[in-house]
Design goal:
The protein has 440 residues and is α+β, with helices and mostly antiparallel strands. It is built from 15 helices and 17 strands. The chain folds into two domains: 314 residues, BirA Bifunctional Protein, domain 2 (2-Layer Sandwich), CATH 3.30.930; 97 residues, Rossmann fold. The longest helix is centred in the N-terminal third of the chain and has 20 residues. It starts with 20 loop residues before the first helix and ends with a helix. The protein binds histidyl-adenosine monophosphate.
Length: 440
């Protein structure tokens, strides 16, 4: 219990953000750009609950998240529940529940906030928002082609160019084949090795070497073999033991089409892409900023064939990605792609005298009915100069001066606070002139 005189901190919970109006403006802008791109491909929005049964994540979300990062608790009815650390299991549950009636391909997107007990740092928080885009019911690489193109189009829509990011792509079965047949590892050891490879860039070379030796104590060439695998090109795959060559052909076809779409230079085949989730079964990919300022991936995704089968007998193959708002913002800031978002299309009307309140409200109403956003300053005791300063501080570009004289003459003055110019607005032409001034 706090002492009565002791104040509570204004700082929020570690790893979370308060979204003040300026931050909200930015978040809404990010979501609006993303929404426009995904909707242009025909994706429909869905949402689900923040809390799910813990079993939903235990099944396939993976050790790293379920073992260390999940926010779980026992509810008042004694059930084990968790705050969602990712959206894909909820999505699979929802799709499985209606799998028979949903026409395919199912193309859905969502903007959930997700919770992971992480050590907060650059690109990592405990609560983040994530655009999830997923397609179900297309078993071939055609789905990956669309998903990858869409993922790139989102960054292009923010003004990015092809030098600013790279998509690293691999296939889960390539790694599985190499582990089981090339390194003779059983699934448990393979899983262990994939975790080591996943964190390879975050640990020291000595730590990495000793981890590999621990998992493969009887293979003196293990490090060399793994290195050859990790740096293999698509054509090198035929020299890597354990790889099913039909996978190489599938990857080559996907790259042929990516080339045709102008994305060949952006997407790279990279067998070192692991992805920490247990549900991926096919293509996996991550998108990275080419700037060394941002090391964390912008997107992560892939194909999962057996997530819906956790809930029903009907297996339905899904493929998709998650794009985080924290890493996206870092990317846009690094490349100077964040626009200045202000209140430029909102009209501010000062109230210069209390007796004018009725007129001001009527003018404001007329603007609003015509789709023009409008805010009134409701403090007539403040001098005009003070109200202008306040309007500037609140970020308005325009104020509409409607004093007693202006109201009597039915001509208002629209003042641009940035360049200090002024335009007269006769009441009967006000809307027309304003729209031109604001929106052209
Ligand atoms: P994920 O790789 O865990 O994938 O997350 C996707 C993206 O979310 C990451 O690339 C990163 O941008 C962002 N992200 C993840 N964790 C954090 C965090 N703690 N703080 C800030 N940003 C974060 C998934 O979650 C999969 N369920 C995505 C998916 C959808 N796969 C198929 N469909």
């Amino acid at each position: 219990m706090k002492e009565k005189s002791e104040k509570l901190p204004t700082l929020g919970y570690k790893g979370t953000r308060d979204f003040y109006p300026d931050d909200m403006r930015l978040r809404n802008y990010l979501f609006a750009v993303m929404r426009k791109v995904v909707e242009s491909y025909g994706y429909e929005e869905y949402d689900g609950p923040m809390i799910e049964s813990l079993d939903l994540y235990r099944a396939k979300t993976g050790e790293e998240i379920v073992g260390k990062q999940i926010y779980d608790f026992i509810d008042k009815g004694g059930r084990e529940v968790a705050i969602r650390p990712e959206m894909t299991p909820t999505l699979a549950r929802m799709v499985a529940a209606k799998a028979r009636e949903l026409p395919r391909p199912i193309r859905w997107f969502s903007f959930p906030n997700l919770w992971r007990y992480e050590q907060p740092g650059h690109g990592r928080l405990r609560e983040h928002w994530q655009l999830n885009v997923d397609m179900f019911g297309v078993d071939g690489f055609e789905a990956e082609l669309e998903i990858l193109k869409l993922a790139c189009d989102i960054l292009f829509a923010f003004g990015a160019d092809k030098t600013m990011f790279r998509v690293r792509l691999s296939h889960r079965k390539i790694m599985d084949g190499f582990f089981t047949k090339g390194l003779n590892l059983d699934p448990a050891k393979g899983q262990e090795l994939s975790k080591v490879l996943d964190k390879k860039n975050k640990i020291t070379a000595d730590e990495y070497n000793s981890d590999v030796k621990r998992i493969l104590p009887d293979d003196p060439q293990a490090l060399e073999k793994i290195e050859r695998f990790l740096t293999a090109s698509i054509n090198d795959l035929e020299y890597i033991p354990g790889i099913d060559l039909s996978l190489r052909d599938e990857i080559s076809i996907l790259f042929k089409y990516l080339d045709q779409l102008g994305l060949g230079e952006v997407v790279e085949f990279d067998p070192s892409v692991v992805r920490g989730f247990d549900y991926y079964t096919g293509f996996v990919f991550e998108i990275f900023d080419t700037s060394p300022a941002n090391k964390r991936s912008l997107y992560g995704g892939g194909r999962y064939d057996n997530l819906t089968s956790l809930f029903s007998n009907e297996a339905l193959s899904g493929t998709g990605f998650g794009l985080g708002d924290v890493t996206l913002k870092n990317f846009l800031e690094t490349h100077n792609l964040l626009p200045k978002l202000g209140r430029e299309d909102v009209i501010c009307i000062p109230l210069l005298d209390e007796s004018l309140l009725g007129d001001i409200c009527a003018i404001a109403d007329e603007l609003r009915k015509n789709g023009i956003q409008c805010e009134t300053l409701l403090n007539p005791s403040q001098k005009f100069g003070k109200q202008i300063t306040l309007a500037e501080k609140k970020g308005f570009k325009y104020i509409l001066i409607c004093g007693a004289d202006e109201i009597a003459k039915s001509i208002y003055a629209l003042k641009n606070l940035q360049d200090r110019t002024q335009v007269d607005l006769p009441r009967d032409q006000m809307i027309e002139i304003l729209k031109k001034e604001l929106f052209t």
